[in-house]
Amino acid sequence: RQRAMWCCCNADPEPQTAAVQVMTPQSVWQQKEDEQKLPVVEPSRLKRKAEEEIPSPAPPPTGDPHDGEQDQLAEKQEKEIVELPMTFEVVIPKTGTLGLMCDARQSFAHIMQVGKGCVQDYNSRVSKSEQVLPDDLLIEINGSPVSREGLKSAAESDGDVRLKLVRPIQRAVKITRSSASWGVKLGFFADTQIAEIVTIVPDGSFAAYNATAPVGMQLNPRDLIKSINGVSGSQDGMLKATEQATVLELTVLKTTP
After folding, report:
1. Contact 49, 19 (CB under 8 A)
2. How open is the CA angle 103-172-246, to the nearest 5 degrees?
3. What is the rounded distance in angstroms from the CA atom of residue 234 to the CA atom of residue 221?
4. Per-position DSSP letters for 111-158, written without gaps between them
5. Under DSSP, is residue 183 helix (H, G, I), strand (E, B) or coil?
């Protein structure tokens, strides 16, 4: 086991209508008598009556008949959009110890704790989205991939320290055994005992889960497993929890899209 303590600081005209009365042919005198007998109708009342007798046409349909289908598709796609892991960089002026406790594994380090030091000072001056937090993964130091030697060098060096990190997204994942094996190879961090997914076998239960899981919930190499069926902090305990189980309930730190 090896722990590295280091830190960074800063840190849409109404239509016109007309009333027309049709009369049958007759003598002029009869016509005049009839005209005298015709009731007098005020123009405004005539217009109003015509409007009441002639119904307005129904408005034409608007829009594409397929708009409803498109709206449903858009809604479905929106539901599938999920939060993704964030990659970001910070520059921390180094005036003392960094104050980071990390558990390094291969090409990245899992930040276990942010203690007193430059990184904690930097966090106090920035928004939470810019802070360095526990469970963040450190992937580069001063432009170089993370290594145990790089952690040690950054802890001992003077001047600014540039850190490139990934902020994973925690997910609850449930996998049902669908084959003889789970079909996954895990590697464990020495101190935190968090499991890293190293390989997923094509014909295993993990691959079967991925085939039907929505975007953002699939498991990939470099994703981390914090607990298996409630067991955490112990490599032996987590592996034993998989032996007789037919369902695995995992707490996962998604580090990949």
Report:
1. yes
2. 100
3. 20
4. EEEE-SSHHHHHHTTS-GGGS--TT-EEEEETTEE--HHHHHHHHH--
5. coil
> Rounded to two decimals, what is the model's pTM?
0.66
Residues with Cβ < 8 Å from 93, sequence gap 6 or more? 8, 9, 10, 11, 118, 122, 159, 160
Q: CB neighbours of 7 closer than 8 A, spacing ≥ 6?
A: 92, 94, 96, 97, 98, 99, 100, 115, 117, 118, 119, 120, 155
Q: Using alpha carbons, select from 140, 84, 93 the residue that is nearest to residue 118.
A: 93
Task: In whole angstroms, give the CA distance from residue 19 to residue 36.
Answer: 19
Q: Which of 124, 118, 246, 227 is nearest to 178 (CA)?
A: 246
Give the pLDDT band of residue 159 (cuts 50, 70, 90).
confident
Q: Which two tokens stand for residue 62?
A: 């608007």
Nearest to 195 by CA among 166, 218, 219, 164: 219
CA–CA distance, 68 with 175 (Å, rounded to integer): 35
**3-state DSSP call for residue 241?**
helix
Residue 105, pLDDT score: 83
Residue 256 has pLDDT above 70, yes or no: yes
> Are 111 and 100 in contact, with CB atoms under 8 Å apart?
yes
d(CA 104, CA 137): 9
